[in-house]
Amino acid sequence: MKRIYTADNVAMAWHVRNVLEQHDIYAEVKNEKTYSIAGEIPITESLPEVWVRLFYAKRAEEIIKEHMFPNNAEGKDWVCGKCSEDNAPSFNICWNCQTSLDVNLD
Ligand SMILES: [Zn+2]
């Protein structure tokens, strides 16, 4: 297992877990309970974490990135994988053929 995401709160951890599950990646939320006693232990050990099997880690990280930063936070133009048109970073779907950025990232 590998930790692929540290969330600010339990809800966010579960959101990430659910997103991964929609992509057929089984994930576990850890530190849910320790989170509830945050303040008594170092904060870095108390934040909820999302873990996946090592085999899925790379793909899971990519999925999280695209879901947590849906507007392509790196601010780079992207090229549609279907029609090869350039798209602005703020577009989540291709302006030309409406293929979603999610599909292009797959
Ligand atoms: Zn396109």
Summarize the structure.
This protein has 106 residues and is an alpha+beta fold.
CATH fold node name of the largest domain: Alpha-Beta Plaits
Helix/strand/pairing class, anyone? alpha+beta
What's the rounded overall pLDDT mean? 81
Q: What string, H for helix and E for strand, traces the elements in order?
A: EHEHHEHEEH
Integer tally of domains? 2
**Dominant shape:** elongated
Work out the radius of gyration.
16 Å
Widest sheet, order of strands: 1-3-2
What is the architecture of the largest domain at the second tier of CATH?
2-Layer Sandwich
Tally of strands: 5
Please report the first level of CATH classification, the CATH class of the largest domain: Alpha Beta
List segments where confidence is low: pLDDT < 50 over at least 5 consecutive residues.
none
Termini separation (Å)?
23 Å
Strand content: 15-25%
Account of the protein in words:
This protein is of the alpha+beta class and 106 residues long. The protein folds into 2 domains: 1-68, Alpha-Beta Plaits; 72-106, no CATH class. It is built from 5 helices and 5 strands. It has helices spanning 10-22, 32-35, 43-46, 57-68, 101-105; strands at 2-6, 27-30, 49-52, 78-79, 86-87. The strands form 2 sheets. Strands 1-3-2 form a 3-stranded antiparallel beta sheet, with helices on one face. The chain has a two-stranded antiparallel sheet with strand order 4-5. A hairpin with a 6-residue loop joins strand 4 (78-79) and strand 5 (86-87). The chain is elongated. The protein starts with a strand and ends with a helix. The mean pLDDT is 81. It binds zinc ion. Zinc ion binds next to loops. This is RanBP2-type domain-containing protein. Residues 78-97 form the RanBP2-type domain. GO terms for molecular function: zinc ion binding.
